[in-house]
Amino acid sequence: MNDFIYLDIGNSNTKWKYKGKYYTSPTNEFTLDKLPKTSKIWISNVSSSFVVNRNFNISLVKSKKRYKSLINSYKEPNMLGTDRWLGMIASYEINPGKGFILVDIGTAVTIDLVNNSGLHLGGVIFPGLSKIRETFENFPVSNEIKINNISQSTEGGWSIGTLNLVVNGINQKVNDIKISEPDLTIYLTGGGISDLEKFLDFSYVYYKNLVLDGLEFFANNMG
Length: 223
Description:
The structure is a single chain. The protein is of the alpha/beta class and 223 residues long. The protein folds into two domains: 5-60, Nucleotidyltransferase, domain 5 (2-Layer Sandwich); 66-210, Nucleotidyltransferase, domain 5 (2-Layer Sandwich). It contains four helices and twelve strands; from the N terminus they run βββββββαβββααββα. It has helices at 82-94, 129-133, 154-180, 210-222, and strands at 5-9, 13-18, 21-26, 41-45, 58-60, 66-67, 70-71, 100-105, 108-114, 120-127, 185-189, 205-206. The strands form three sheets. The protein has a five-stranded mixed beta sheet, covered by helices on one side. A five-stranded mixed beta sheet has the order 10-9-8-11-12, with helices on both faces. The longest helix has 27 residues, at 154-180. The radius of gyration is 18 Å and the shape is globular. The model has no long low-confidence stretch (mean pLDDT 91).
C-alpha cells in the first residue's frame, strides 16, 4: 500500500483517505498541515475559498474527457466538477459495463446519468437542504416533522417546505430518468443523506465516500 493521500475539498467539509481509512474536517478549519506525512497528495477541490499550498507535493485533479470507457459529456471536460467526475469513476468501477444514476447529496445535490456504454448523458444540480435553509437564517428548523403535513407554526412550515423542495427534486428527477432507463442501478453518496433517506421513494445503494474512492481510482489509472 502506498502512502498517498486522497483529498476531497468540498464547500462545507473536507475528507481524505489515507492507507484505506477515511477522515473528515470542516473545510473552514482544515489546512494541509493537518495531514500525515506523505510522498504525494491527490486533490479534488470544489471550494472557491480554499487555497492550495504549493509547498506540498500535490496533484490537483481536473475532469478529463474519458476514464477507460467512461466518457464525459461536457464539450469542455474540465468544466465538469471533479467531485461529480470522480463519483462517476467510482460508480463505474463498482460494476464496469453497467449504467447507473449517481445522486450526490451534500451542500449541493447533483444527479448524473451514465448509460450501459459508459457515456455520461448529463445531469442536474440544485442546492442541498442546508444551503436552502441558509437563505433565511432567522427561520427556526425542526427535524420532528412529517413531510406530507402542513404546519401551524413558522418553524414547522419552513422545515416541511424546505425538506419538500429537496426531496421532491431528487425523487422527481430520478423517477423521470427511470421511465426511460428502468434497469439502471442508483448509487447515492454524500453526507446529506441522513436528513433525506426515509423520504426517498426509490431503491438505491449507498456508498459514503465515492468521491475519495474515485480519486484513488483516477490516481492509480490516470496519474
